[in-house]
Amino acid sequence: MTMFCEVAREALSARLDGERAPVPSARVDEHLGECSACRAWFTQVASQAGDLRRLAESRPVVPPVGRLGIRRAPRRQHSPMTWRRWALLCVGIAQIALGTVQGFGLDVGLTHQHPTGAGTHLLNESTSWSIALGVHGGRGHGRAPPPAWPVF
User: Mind telling me which InterPro entries this protein's record contains (predicted)?
Assistant: First the structure.
């Protein structure tokens, strides 16, 4: 009675892994003697398993990580509000106010209606930029440095 190659390969794989084979070893060895494809497969898989085993054994042992010695960052000293920071804050507030007024659709005389409707598009762009610049400029007086506060 012949054995299917899939069954033999499953049994050989279990043998390499040190597991219990689903069929008797004598039948698997008999199949290996008869089937050159399974013999080549087993040779290749056994070689790969040996390579993996040697690779795992050659890996250097890394000691467990202890305390990393990470300390809390020192508190940042804030400089007093200079006239430049006050000016930047005022410009930021003005930009946000302008963007808010434009966002509600109130006419502040920045655009005129053109037959192609480009004025509405420019108003939307201007509103977005006004709010973005206002938010970014208004944060110039804040606690975090500008790179930590992205503009949308």
Answer: Znf_put
CA–CA gap between residue 21 and residue 80 (Å, rounded) = 78
pLDDT tens digits for range 121-151: 666 677 777 777 777 665 555 555 555 555 5
> Which of left, alpha, beta for 102 (phi over 0: left; psi -120 to 50: alpha)?
alpha
CA-to-CA separations, 12 to 8, 9, 15, 49, 139, in angstroms, rounded: 6, 5, 5, 12, 68
Give me Rg for the CA atoms of the chain: 37
Instruction: Write down the pTM of the prediction.
Output: 0.39
Tell me the H-state helices in 19-82.
25-34, 36-58
Phi-psi region of 19 (alpha: psi -120 to 50; beta: other; left: phi over 0): beta
Distance CA 32, CA 13 (A): 13
For 45-57, the pLDDT digits (tens) are 999 998 988 888 8
DSSP code of residue 144: S
81: Cβ contacts below 8 Å, ≥ 6 apart: 141
